[in-house]
């Protein structure tokens, strides 16, 4: 299963979390959009359910869309060889998302990276510190509003 | 007894010349001692220079590189250039170092390394002090080098140094035991600890033929004693940077280096003396044979260094205590029984 | 009162065997590791932020500087991602050239792995031999694109230039010599008793744990998990080649070493096959000078020597990527360091680090 036929095969998931999950995007770009408070349930469901078995968290990143920050989970099921994209959104000011480390420990460093560069706080993360930048660094550079100042490109 | 040849003859000639100028025979003796001491130090420093160059060339040969080839013909002056560089380097002492211990450590390490040369039989009668406990003296002296390592490790106030110092003590103490036991087999056969007697006993059969196990044990333990790969855990650069030497610079570091090569020469000399017949050999003068054999041993140690990976500390310890020690003990028992049987039949 | 306590040892950022500027804070009980916490960021250049102010084509050279020992793979991953967004069809010959280059680069990268593992364990000759053979591959790259390390050879729609006429004979000579080289390494390193005992049963990571912690690449396959993107989601033309994916059994350092050694053999076989099948023709599709991918997003990943290299690009329809994220295998693989090292000795930390084969250029991005 690729992202293309995501609509047809996620019926069970939709039935269960009807109001908390919806499918956005089209074809290759289609993804599940989950509300933050149900995110962990949905991710756990995707990981453990027999018909999905998404046992790998391939990639975890976030995008700043100015009004909101979107956290993107790229999951992969090794037994069934299928991929899915799950997204969730959080606000710009009080950016908080539950940590996926309880489901996939591999989220650890990637969540720290997102925290470091985009300033999203992952609640329940075991060790949420900056990872690439120094601890006393001010601001989160990958936010679109981050002022590069003099450190930026000189034309 | 062999006729007087080689190095001893040179000494005799020198003594004759001195006798012309100096009236008192006692003064001549003192002068000869000084000359001998000078000769030993020359040998140590010269061998260090030569060995550094040899090591680099041998490693280059093993690794299919060309090695040093810029300074002097074939790069032969590279070590001299290195020495000048080392002498010109800034002498840095870490702020938290234990000053006197830190300064003393490289010097103390060098003393036993130089002192063991006293008993080395370079040629027939060319031996500074033919002690009747020669080999015992060597063991006693060479085991002194444990302390300076620990001193350097402790005084540097650096964790890498400390770990390195601890490793040295563990390694040297545990490898000393099988080493001594392997030498014991030779002493049993020769019936003496005097170097010249041991060499003379090998006039017909080298002890390597009679004591192959002891030779293997000796070579392995000697490699460990002088901290060379695969037993270079003390300085294991990829693990603990440079161990006790981490904080040393310039000439202080060079002293460690000098001691390391002096030790390499020392264990090769002992291997030659105990197992390879010392100066014995046909056609060529004794000292040529001696240095040829020593050179062969040094090449063997270098060969080890450039082919083997390093052991881990626990493997090192268990290998020493569980393999080498029983092997050395077994060797002594077999030697004893063998000697008894031999005496019984002849 | 006698008591023992642990002490902290800073391994890195200046240390001979942390492969760059990784800092591992070791909590030691004597020589036994209680905890090994990696601290990174010393090489952080903000490449993801830089991407947002560069055009798509301008970003290709930056990918070279991520995993700088396998730059071809980085180029390939990025270019394929953008091609996927825009919908560019790559000429056949260029596809084959890409395969040849990335697989050669995989061999070169694994040779570095072998060399650095050898020198980390104290056998410096292994490193010299590895680098000597890698030199042959670098010469080939030099012929094809004029660079030895940062190639920028793979571009949108193909490759920057066709190979010169002397390339194929040289490559064939290399492929003929390569089995003998591998054999030499096996005799020097694999057959060495000390190396075996240093690596065997150290840093064991079970297959289940490896999956959970996000290991990819040879490190994951050493734990017995069959996940090679070239097989499970063939990108480019990997489905046309016949090769096997070497797997380990226990997931210790030894398996990680053997898996990489076997992979080199497989890569050489892929290159041989590609060389046989490669057609004549152009090496570059017609691609506009300035790319403006339609608004949207793509995640595409390839199998790099260190694991799954993924690019996630969000486009807003402009000339610059709106957001570009690189899933760096070295970075995520480092997560396992702490649990793999616990209870081992200092010397083993070095072995685990070397067999994880993380590269700081990629970790810090």
Automatic annotation (TrEMBL), chain A:
The keyword Translocase applies. Transmembrane segments: none annotated. It comes from the Bacteria. Pfam families: Complex1_30kDa (PF00329). The keyword Aminoacyl-tRNA synthetase does not apply. Its EC number is 7.1.1.-. It catalyses: a quinone + NADH + 5 H(+)(in) = a quinol + NAD(+) + 4 H(+)(out). GO terms for molecular function: NADH dehydrogenase (ubiquinone) activity; oxidoreductase activity, acting on NAD(P)H; quinone binding. Gene3D superfamilies: NADH:ubiquinone oxidoreductase, 30kDa subunit (3.30.460.80). Keywords: NAD, Quinone, Translocase, Transport. It is an enzyme of class 7 (translocase). Residues 36-148 form the NADH:ubiquinone oxidoreductase 30kDa subunit domain. InterPro entries: NADH_DH_suC, NADH_quin_OxRdtase_su_C/D-like, NADH_UbQ_OxRdtase_30kDa_su, NADH_UbQ_OxRdtase_CS. NDH-1 shuttles electrons from NADH, via FMN and iron-sulfur (Fe-S) centers, to quinones in the respiratory chain. Belongs to the complex I 30 kDa subunit family. This is NADH-quinone oxidoreductase.
Automatic annotation (TrEMBL), chain B:
It is found in: Cell membrane; Membrane. NDH-1 is composed of 14 different subunits. Subunits NuoA, H, J, K, L, M, N constitute the membrane sector of the complex. GO terms for cellular component: plasma membrane. Coiled coil: none annotated. Its main location: membrane. PROSITE patterns: COMPLEX1_ND1_1, COMPLEX1_ND1_2. Belongs to the complex I subunit 1 family. Keywords: Cell membrane, Membrane, NAD, Oxidoreductase, Quinone, Translocase, Transmembrane, Transmembrane helix, Ubiquinone. This is NADH-quinone oxidoreductase subunit H. It is an enzyme of class 7 (translocase). It comes from Pelosinus fermentans JBW45. It is a multi-pass membrane protein. NDH-1 shuttles electrons from NADH, via FMN and iron-sulfur (Fe-S) centers, to quinones in the respiratory chain. The immediate electron acceptor for the enzyme in this species is believed to be ubiquinone. Couples the redox reaction to proton translocation (for every two electrons transferred, four hydrogen ions are translocated across the cytoplasmic membrane), and thus conserves the redox energy in a proton gradient. This subunit may bind ubiquinone. It catalyses: a quinone + NADH + 5 H(+)(in) = a quinol + NAD(+) + 4 H(+)(out). PANTHER family: NADH DEHYDROGENASE SUBUNIT 1, NADH-UBIQUINONE OXIDOREDUCTASE CHAIN 1. Its EC number is 7.1.1.-. GO terms for molecular function: NADH dehydrogenase activity; oxidoreductase activity, acting on NAD(P)H, quinone or similar compound as acceptor; quinone binding.
Automatic annotation (TrEMBL), chain C:
GO terms for cellular component: plasma membrane. Keywords: Cell membrane, Membrane, NAD, Oxidoreductase, Quinone, Translocase, Transport. Its main location: membrane. It comes from the Bacteria. Signal peptide: none annotated. It is a peripheral membrane protein. Residues 120-364 form the NADH-quinone oxidoreductase subunit D domain. SUPFAM superfamilies: HydB/Nqo4-like. GO terms for molecular function: NAD binding; NADH dehydrogenase (quinone) (non-electrogenic) activity; quinone binding. It catalyses: a quinone + NADH + 5 H(+)(in) = a quinol + NAD(+) + 4 H(+)(out). It is found in: Cell membrane. Its EC number is 7.1.1.-. PANTHER family: NADH DEHYDROGENASE [UBIQUINONE] IRON-SULFUR PROTEIN 2, MITOCHONDRIAL, NADH-UBIQUINONE OXIDOREDUCTASE 49 KDA SUBUNIT. HAMAP family: NDH1_NuoD. Belongs to the complex I 49 kDa subunit family. NDH-1 is composed of 14 different subunits. Subunits NuoB, C, D, E, F, and G constitute the peripheral sector of the complex. NDH-1 shuttles electrons from NADH, via FMN and iron-sulfur (Fe-S) centers, to quinones in the respiratory chain. The immediate electron acceptor for the enzyme in this species is believed to be a menaquinone. Couples the redox reaction to proton translocation (for every two electrons transferred, four hydrogen ions are translocated across the cytoplasmic membrane), and thus conserves the redox energy in a proton gradient. This is NADH-quinone oxidoreductase subunit D. It comes from Pelosinus fermentans JBW45. The gene is nuoD.
């Amino acid at each position: 299963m690729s992202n293309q036929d995501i609509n047809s095969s996620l019926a069970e998931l939709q039935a269960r979390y009807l109001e908390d999950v919806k499918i956005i995007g089209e074809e290759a770009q289609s993804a599940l959009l989950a509300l933050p408070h149900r995110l962990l349930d949905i991710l756990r469901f995707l990981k453990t359910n027999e018909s999905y078995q998404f046992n790998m968290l391939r990639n975890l990143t976030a995008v700043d869309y100015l009004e909101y920050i979107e956290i993107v989970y790229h999951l992969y099921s090794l037994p069934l060889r299928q991929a899915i994209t799950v997204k969730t959104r959080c606000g710009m000011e009080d950016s908080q998302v539950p940590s996926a480390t309880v489901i996939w420990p591999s989220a650890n460093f990637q969540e720290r990276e997102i925290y470091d560069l985009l300033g999203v706080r992952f609640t329940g993360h075991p060790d949420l510190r900056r990872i690439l930048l120094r601890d006393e660094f001010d601001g989160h550079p990958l936010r679109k509003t981050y002022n590069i100042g003099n450190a930026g490109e000189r034309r | 007894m062999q006729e007087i040849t080689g190095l001893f003859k040179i000494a005799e000639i020198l003594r004759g010349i001195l006798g012309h100028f100096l009236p008192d025979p006692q003064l001549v003796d003192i002068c000869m001692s000084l000359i001998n001491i000078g000769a030993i130090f020359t040998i140590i420093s010269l061998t260090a220079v030569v060995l550094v160059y040899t090591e680099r060339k041998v490693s280059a040969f093993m690794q299919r590189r060309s090695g040093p080839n810029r300074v002097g013909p074939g790069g032969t002056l590279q070590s001299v250039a290195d020495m000048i560089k080392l002498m010109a380097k800034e002498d840095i002492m870490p702020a938290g170092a234990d000053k006197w211990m830190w300064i003393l450590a490289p010097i103390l390490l060098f003393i036993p390394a130089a002192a063991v040369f006293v008993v080395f039989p370079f040629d027939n009668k060319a031996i500074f002090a033919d002690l009747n406990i020669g080999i015992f003296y060597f063991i006693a002296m060479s085991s002194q080098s444990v302390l300076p390592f620990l001193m350097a490790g402790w005084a540097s106030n650096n964790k890498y140094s400390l770990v390195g110092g601890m490793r040295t003590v563990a390694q040297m103490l545990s490898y000393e035991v099988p080493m001594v036991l392997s030498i014991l087999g030779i002493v049993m056969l020769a019936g003496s600890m005097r170097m010249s007697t041991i060499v003379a006993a090998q006039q017909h059969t080298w002890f390597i033929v009679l004591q192959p196990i002891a030779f293997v044990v000796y070579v392995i333990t000697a490699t460990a004693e002088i901290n060379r790969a695969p037993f270079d855990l003390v300085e294991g650069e990829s693990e603990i940077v440079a161990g006790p030497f981490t904080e040393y610079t310039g000439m202080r570091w060079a002293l460690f280096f000098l001691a390391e090569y002096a030790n390499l020469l020392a264990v090769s000399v002992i291997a030659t003396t105990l197992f390879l017949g010392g100066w014995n050999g046909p056609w060529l003068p004794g000292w040529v044979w001696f240095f040829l054999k020593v050179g062969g041993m040094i090449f063997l140690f270098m060969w080890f260094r450039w082919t083997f990976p390093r052991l881990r500390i626990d493997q090192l310890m268990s290998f020493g205590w569980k393999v080498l020690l029983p092997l050395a003990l077994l060797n002594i028992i077999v030697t004893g029984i063998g000697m008894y049987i031999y005496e019984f039949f002849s | 009162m006698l008591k023992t306590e642990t002490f902290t040892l800073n391994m890195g950022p200046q240390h001979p065997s942390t492969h760059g500027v990784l800092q591992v804070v070791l909590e030691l009980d004597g020589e036994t590791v209680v905890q090994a916490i990696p601290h990174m960021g010393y090489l952080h250049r903000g490449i993801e932020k830089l991407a947002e102010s560069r055009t798509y084509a301008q970003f290709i050279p930056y990918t070279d500087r991520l995993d700088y020992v396998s730059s071809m793979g980085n180029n390939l991953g990025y270019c394929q991602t953008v091609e996927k967004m825009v919908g560019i069809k790559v000429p056949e010959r260029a596809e084959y050239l890409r395969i040849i280059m990335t697989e050669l680069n995989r061999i070169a990268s694994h040779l570095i792995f072998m060399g650095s593992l050898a020198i980390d364990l104290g056998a410096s000759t292994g490193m010299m031999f590895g680098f000597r053979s890698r030199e042959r591959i670098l010469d080939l790259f030099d012929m094809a694109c004029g660079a030895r390390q940062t190639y920028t050879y793979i571009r949108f729609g193909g490759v920057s230039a066709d190979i010169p006429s002397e390339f194929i004979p040289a490559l064939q000579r290399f492929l003929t010599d390569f089995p003998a080289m591998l054999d030499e390494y096996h005799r020097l390193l694999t057959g060495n008793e000390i190396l075996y005992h240093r690596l065997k049963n150290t840093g064991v990571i079970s297959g289940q744990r490896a999956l959970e912690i996000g290991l990819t690449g040879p490190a994951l396959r050493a734990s017995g998990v069959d996940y090679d993107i070239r097989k499970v989601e063939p990108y480019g033309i990997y489905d046309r080649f016949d090769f096997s994916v070497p797997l380990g059994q226990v997931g210790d350092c030894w398996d990680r070493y053997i898996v990489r050694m076997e992979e080199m053999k497989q890569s050489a076989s892929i290159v041989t096959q590609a060389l046989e099948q490669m057609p004549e023709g152009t090496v570059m599709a017609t691609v506009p000078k300035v790319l403006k991918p339609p608004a949207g997003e793509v995640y595409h990943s390839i199998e790099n020597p260190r694991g799954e290299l993924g690019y996630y690009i969000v486009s807003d329809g402009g000339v610059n990527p709106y957001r570009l994220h690189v899933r760096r295998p070295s970075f995520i693989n480092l997560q396992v360091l702490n649990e793999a090292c616990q209870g081992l000795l200092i010397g083993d930390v070095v072995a685990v680090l070397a067999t994880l084969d993380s590269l700081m250029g990629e970790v810090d991005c």
